[in-house]
Design goal:
The complex is a heterodimer. By secondary structure, chain A is mainly alpha-helical. Chain A is built from 19 helices and two strands. Helix content of chain A is 77%, strand content 1%. Chain A has a two-stranded antiparallel ribbon. Chain A is globular and about 70 Å long. By secondary structure, chain B is an alpha/beta fold. The relative contact order of chain B is 0.17.
Chain lengths: 502, 319
C-alpha cells in the first residue's frame, strides 16, 4: 500500500499542472472524432523523455482518461462516438440531446466517467497483481466466446428489429474481413485494390456510419439540430447528481464490468460500454426507455469506459502486456525510459507506480470540474452555431480526423462510402451499432477461433477446448441468456397481455 | 490546445512534405527528417526508431520526426513509399521478412525490388521462450518431447509468414520434428498465451526474454554469437542448428532519392549505430545491432530472400 510520501510526490505542483493540462487536452482530443488518445500520447512521447518517469506517466494517463470521457461529447451532441469507447453512449445520449436534454446528458456523462475512472483506479491501486491473473486466464477460446457474447448484444440492441440487426451485424463482419488478415496474413476481399489493402479502420467506420448520416439529415431537413428549451439552465448539476445517486447500483456494476473488460488485452472500452449498457438495460425497471434517451444508458456506458483506463493499466504494469492501444504506447515510452514493468514495479520501484496511480486519481477528480466546464462550452457551441456552419465544420473535422488516424487517404474514401451507405441503410431501418459491433468483434472472434482450433488440433480435444473450460462455460451461459432472454421475456409479456385482454 | 496544434502540425507536415522544396546533398540534412513507421505506435518498430531519435538530433542537429502509417501489416506504408518525395527528408522503416514475403503472397502494391533500403540497423533475434517453471530445461528437452509427441508441442508466435513462423519452419525441418505453430496478433498476445499456459512454448524474440525476464527463460537464440545481455543462453548454432534469424529492421527511401543522398543517409544511420550509448540501450532491450549499409544492401536482401522464400514455401505461406 502506498505511503503518504507517494501521495505527496504525486501532488507536487508540476504533477498537478501536468494532470490538469493532460485532462483538458485529452477531453478536447477525445471529443473530436478521429483524434484519438493513442495518437495524442504518441505525439507527446518524445516530450516525456525529458521528464521523470512518474510525471510522464501522470501526464499520459491524464490525457488518456480525458480522451475516453471527451468521446462522450460528440456521441451525445452529434451522434458520433469521438472514440470507439463511446459507441454505447450514442444509444441514449443522442436521443436525450434530441429531446432537449443535451446539457443534462453531458453532465451525467461527466459524473459517470469520474465515478468509473475512480473505481478503475481503485482496483489498479489495491488489487493489480492478483487481477492481472484474469488477463492470463483468458485464452484464445475465451476471447472467441467473449466476442460471440458481444455479437449476441445485437439481439438486445435491436429489439423489435432483430432480423435487420443481424443483417447489419453480418455486414459488419464482412467488412472486417477486408484487407490483410491479422494473423494469417492472407489478403482478402481487396479486389486487387490498394485502397482496401489496409482494411476498414474501426474509427473511420465509426465516423462514416454515425456522423455522415447525421450531417446528411441536417442538410436534408429544415429542423433544428437539437431541441433547446428557451431559458438557460446552467449545467443542471443538481438534477444530474440526483439521477446519479438513484443509479448508484448501475454505476457500480458498470464500473466493475468496465474494469474487468479493461484487464483483458484487446477487448477495450467499446466492448465494456456495450456490455454494461445491455446489463443496465436488463436490470432496469424501465428498460423500454433504453434507446429513447434513458439516463441509465449514458451512465452505464460512460462509467464502464472510464473504468477500462485503470483496468487496462493492470496487465500493462503487472505483465508488460498492454491492455489497450494507448497502454501500448505508454508501455513503449516506459521501456525507452528504462522502467521495467512487471510485478516488481509494485514493490521494488513502487514509488513510480504509486505516484502514478495517485496521479491517475488526481486526474480523474480534476475531470469533474474541467469536464463540466468544457461540456457546457461544447453544448453551448453546438446549439448556438448556425446549422450551415455546424455541418461544414463537422464535415471538415471528419475528413481531417479520418485521415489522421493512419495518415491514409484510403481511409477517408472508405469513411465517405460507408457514411453514404449508412444513411441509405438508415432509411430502411438498419442501425449503425450492429454493423460496428460486427466489425469490431469478428476480428476478435476469428483470431480466437483459429487459435483455439489450432491448439485443439495439436492436443486432439476439440470438444474439451471449446466446451470444457470453466470460464468459457460461464460466457456460454451468458450467451444463452442474452440470446433467449428477450425472447422469453416477450413471450411472457404476450401471455400476460393475453390474460389481461381476456 | 497546444497538443492539438501539434498533431495538426504533424498532419500538415505530412501533407506539405509532398510539395516541399529540393535538397542538396552537401548540407544534408539541413531540415527535419520525416521518418514514417508503417506500423502503429508502441510496437518494436516504433520503439527502436524512438531510440534513434535523440542520437540523430545529437549527431546531425536535425529532428527526426516519427509518424505512423499502419495497415495491412506494413503493406499500406510500403506501397506508398515511392510516391513520397525523394529528397532524403522522407524516409520509412522497413522490416524483414515482411517486405520479402508479403509481395510474393499477393499484389500488395509493391515488390521487394521497389524498396530502396539504405541501411539495416538491427535485428531482434528469434528465440524459443518457455515459462520459468516449464519442464523443458534445455532445447534438447523440447526436441525430445516433440519427437515423442509429433504435432503436440504448441508454440505461440507473432503472425504468419513472419520471422517467428519462418524460424519455426526452419527449425522443425533441421531438428526433424513436427510442432504446432499458433499465430497470434503481435508479440504481446503471443507472450500472453505463453504466460497463461495456453501454449507450451513460444517462438519469440530476444526482446521477450529482456522484457519478461522474471517469468520466462530462453532455450536458444538465433544468433551467430551469444547475446551480450544473455551470456548463459546458447545459440542454435552451438547446439548444432544452422539458424540465425529474426525480425530485421532498417530504413528505406523513395526510389527518386538521389544516389549521393542515399549514401549520406546510410552513413548517418551507421554513425548512430556506432554510438556506444545507443548500442547499450538497444542491447538492453534485447536487440542485436547489425550494420548492413547501402552498398551491402542488395547482397543482404538477395541472400535473405532465398532463405525466407524457401522457408515460406515449406511453411505453406507461399505456393
Amino acid at each position: 500500500m502506498p505511503g503518504t510520501e507517494y501521495i505527496l510526490a504525486a501532488l507536487s505542483p508540476t504533477n498537478i499542472l501536468l494532470a490538469l493540462g493532460g485532462v483538458i487536452a485529452g477531453t478536447v482530443i477525445g471529443s473530436l472524432p478521429g483524434l484519438t488518445a493513442t495518437m495524442a500520447i504518441a505525439v507527446l512521447v518524445p516530450i516525456t523523455f525529458t521528464m521523470d518517469p512518474a510525471s510522464a506517466l501522470i501526464m499520459l494517463g491524464a490525457i488518456y482518461t480525458g480522451a475516453v470521457y471527451g468521446g462522450a461529447y460528440s456521441a451525445i451532441l452529434l451522434n458520433t462516438p469521438g472514440t470507439p469507447s463511446a459507441i454505447a453512449t450514442t444509444l441514449d445520449g443522442y436521443p436525450m440531446a434530441k429531446k432537449g436534454d443535451g446539457d443534462l446528458a453531458v453532465t451525467l456523462a461527466c459524473i459517470a466517467s469520474v465515478f468509473g475512472g475512480l473505481v478503475g483506479a481503485a482496483f489498479l491501486l489495491m488489487l493489480a497483481p492478483p487481477l492481472a491473473a484474469i488477463a492470463l486466464a483468458f485464452g484464445p477460446v475465451e476471447y472467441f466466446w467473449l466476442a460471440i457474447f458481444g455479437l449476441t448484444l445485437i439481439s438486445a440492441l435491436s429489439e423489435g428489429n432483430l432480423l435487420k440487426g443481424l443483417i447489419g451485424g453480418c455486414f459488419g463482419m464482412l467488412l472486417a474481413c477486408i484487407g490483410v488478415a491479422e494473423i494469417s496474413a492472407d489478403v482478402r476481399l481487396t479486389f486487387g485494390s490498394e485502397l482496401l489493402l489496409g482494411g476498414v479502420e474501426i474509427i473511420s467506420a465509426l465516423i462514416g456510419l454515425y456522423c455522415i448520416p447525421v450531417l446528411i439529415d441536417l442538410v436534408a431537413t429544415p429542423d433544428r439540430h437539437l431541441n433547446v428549451s428557451g431559458e438557460s439552465r446552467g449545467i443542471r448539476l443538481k438534477e444530474a447528481l440526483v439521477i446519479s445517486l438513484k443509479g448508484k447500483w448501475n454505476l457500480i456494476r458498470s464500473s466493475v464490468i468496465g474494469t474487468v473488460v479493461g484487464i483483458l488485452p484487446g477487448a477495450g472500452g467499446s466492448i465494456a460500454g456495450l456490455v454494461s449498457y445491455t446489463e443496465a438495460r436488463r436490470a432496469s425497471k424501465n428498460s423500454e426507455m433504453f434507446g429513447k434517451g434513458a439516463p441509465e444508458g449514458i451512465q452505464a456506458a460512460e462509467s464502464a469506459n472510464n473504468a477500462t483506463v485503470g483496468g487496462g493499466f493492470i496487465p500493462t504494469l503487472v505483465l508488460g502486456i498492454p491492455g489497450t492501444p494507448p497502454d501500448a504506447v505508454i508501455l513503449g515510452a516506459l521501456l525507452v525510459q528504462g522502467v521495467r514493468v512487471g510485478p516488481n514495479l509494485f514493490t521494488a520501484e513502487s514509488s513510480i507506480v504509486y505516484t502514478f496511480i495517485t496521479g491517475l486519481f488526481l486526474a480523474t477528480v480534476l475531470m469533474l470540474p474541467t469536464g463540466l466546464i468544457i461540456g457546457r462550452y461544447a453544448y453551448r457551441t453546438i446549439i448556438s452555431v448556425p446549422k450551415s456552419m455546424l455541418v461544414a465544420t463537422v464535415a471538415f473535422m471528419t475528413m481531417i480526423g479520418t485521415y489522421s488516424i493512419r495518415n491514409s487517404v484510403s481511409d477517408v474514401f472508405v469513411m465517405i462510402v460507408l457514411g453514404i451507405m449508412g444513411w441509405v441503410l438508415n432509411r430502411f431501418g438498419f442501425q449503425p451499432s450492429p454493423i460496428v459491433l460486427g466489425l469490431i468483434l469478428s476480428r476478435i472472434a476469428e483470431q480466437g477461433f483459429v487459435q483455439s482450433w489450432t491448439i485443439a488440433s495439436a492436443t486432439g480435444g476439440y470438444f474439451q477446448m471449446f466446451f470444457g473450460r470453466p470460464i468459457s462455460l460461464g460466457i456460454i451461459a451468458a450467451i444463452i441468456l442474452s440470446l433467449f432472454g428477450p425472447l422469453l421475456m416477450r413471450r411472457f409479456q404476450l401471455k400476460q397481455e393475453m390474460n389481461n385482454a381476456e | 490546445m497546444k497538443l492539438l496544434s501539434k498533431s495538426f502540425m504533424a498532419i500538415a507536415t505530412a501533407l506539405l512534405t509532398v510539395s516541399a522544396g529540393g535538397a542538396y546533398a552537401a548540407d544534408y540534412p539541413d531540415q527535419q527528417v520525416n521518418y514514417v513507421i508503417p506500423f502503429g505506435p508502441g510496437g518494436e518498430s516504433d520503439i527502436t526508431a524512438r531510440h534513434q531519435q535523440p542520437y540523430f538530433k545529437k549527431l546531425f542537429g536535425q529532428n527526426l520526426v516519427i509518424s505512423y502509417k499502419p495497415g495491412g501489416g506494413g503493406a499500406v506504408g510500403w506501397s506508398q513509399l515511392n510516391k513520397m518525395k525523394g529528397d532524403g527528408y522522407n524516409i520509412m522503416g522497413i522490416n524483414l521478412p515482411h517486405i520479402i514475403i508479403k509481395p510474393r503472397q499477393k499484389n500488395v502494391g509493391f515488390t521487394t525490388e521497389d524498396i530502396v533500403g539504405v541501411y539495416i540497423f538491427h535485428y531482434t533475434p528469434d528465440a524459443i521462450v518457455v515459462k520459468n517453471d516449464s519442464p523443458f530445461k534445455t532445447l534438447q528437452d523440447l526436441v525430445d518431447f516433440a519427437k515423442k509427441n509429433p504435432g503436440q508441442l504448441t508454440l505461440s508466435g507473432s503472425g504468419k509468414g513472419t520471422a517467428n513462423h519462418l524460424a519455426q519452419v526452419n527449425f522443425d525441418k533441421q531438428a526433424g520434428i513436427k510442432t504446432t505453430y499458433v499465430a497470434f496478433k503481435g508479440t504481446g498476445a503471443a507472450v500472453q498465451a505463453l504466460l497463461g499456459d495456453q501454449v507450451k512454448a513460444e517462438w519469440g524474440y530476444t526482446s521477450v526474454g529482456a522484457k519478461h525476464a522474471e517469468k520466462v527463460r530462453m532455450l536458444a537464440v538465433a544468433m551467430d554469437k551469444r547475446h551480450p545481455k544473455f551470456p548463459d543462453v546458447p545459440t542454435f548454432k552451438e547446439l548444432g542448428f544452422d539458424l540465425v534469424s529474426g525480425a530485421y529492421r532498417g530504413i528505406a527511401v523513395p526510389k527518386s532519392t538521389p544516389e549521393d543522398i542515399r549514401k549520406k543517409l546510410s552513413d548517418a544511420i551507421g554513425k548512430i549505430n556506432a554510438d556506444p550509448e545507443f548500442q547499450k540501450r538497444m542491447i538492453n532491450d534485447g536487440m542485436a545491432l547489425l550494420d548492413v549499409d547501402y552498398a551491402g544492401m542488395k547482397a543482404f536482401i538477395d541472400e535473405k530472400t532465398k532463405s525466407y522464400v524457401e522457408a515460406a514455401k515449406a511453411g505453406g505461406v507461399l505456393k
